[in-house]
Structures are given as structure tokens and as C-alpha cells.
Amino acid sequence: MDLRGKLNDALKEAMRAKDADRLSTLRLINAAIKDRDIARRGEGREGGVEEAEILAILGKMVKQRQESARAYEEGGRLELAEKERAEIAVIEDFLPRQLTEEEAEAAIEAAIKEVGASSIRDMGKVMAVLKAKYTGRMDFGSVGAKVKGMIG
After folding, report:
1. Can you list the alpha helix ranges (DSSP code H) found in 3-152?
2. CATH architecture of 101-151
3. Per-residue pLDDT of the chain (152 residues; tens, 9 = 90+)
4. Where in the sequence of the chain do the CATH 1.10.1510.10 domains occur?
5. Which positions ≥6 away from 62 have C-beta within 8 Å?
6. I need a surface site. Which of 56, 58, 61, 79 has the fewest CB within 10 A?
């Protein structure tokens, strides 16, 4: 079953279980995906959002909530930070397992070899290969620095 189908099944299950918090988060996910569908139509592209784009949306949602939780903690709003963390847990149910540090480094090395990267100018090619293969499975914010370190 595709990711969109899993999300819809989880939404129905949360409704049946009357799990308001999970239901709320799942509705936010569906809304974000539908927004992207609408944006694609506006760009003249047919069809719905692809699996890789859904994973990117989910990854972005997790990152936003992590930042919000940090800000709430710094502001002494622990109940709001906990709510953000609960939403992260629901979203992460639909993301593939994150690569370990060692697996990420091995993937970066393989991508560098694959594109024959020899200088920092090849970083875009390396990142494109990594995003194509590992979207949703690695944090691309930290990967950029690692790629720079390995190339340059």
C-alpha cells in the first residue's frame, strides 16, 4: 500500500478510536499533502504528489515541530513542547527508518563515487543523488557539511 493509503487508513482508525490528538495531526498531514497537490495543478503538472514529495513534506513537518518544541521549552511552555513532540511521534510513524551516522557516511561516500565528485563544485550532483535515494531517511541539513568535508 502506498503512503497516501496508509495515511488515510490511519486517519479512519483514529476516528474510530476517538483519538483526537492523533486525528488532528493526521488531518494536518493530509492538508499539507492536498496543498501540494493544488500547487502542482497550478504549476500545470498532472497527477498527485509522488511518494518522495510526501516524504519530504513529512520531514519538513517534523523539522518544524522540533524547532517549535525547542522554542516552547526555552520559553517555559512545557505543555506546548510536549504537544509538538506528540505530533512528531505521529508523523514519524509514516517516515522510513532514519539512517545511522555510519550508514549516512557510507551513503555519502557511495554518492561521491557514483558522480565522480572531485571538487566542491560537484556538491550539487552528490546532493541530488542522495535526495533521490534517501529522501526522508537522512537529515539533509547536516549532510551538506559532511559532503563538503568529504569532497573538499
Report:
1. 3-17, 20-42, 51-74, 78-92, 101-115, 123-134, 140-151
2. Orthogonal Bundle (1.10)
3. 688 899 999 999 999 999 999 999 999 999 999 999 898 888 877 777 888 888 889 988 998 999 999 999 999 999 999 999 999 999 989 988 888 888 888 888 888 888 888 888 888 888 888 888 887 788 777 888 888 888 76
4. 3-92
5. 88, 91, 92, 95
6. 79
pTM of this prediction? 0.73
Q: Quickly tell me which residue has 483526537 as its cell.
A: 20
**DSSP type of residue 97:** P
Residues of the chain with CATH 1.10.10.410: 101-151
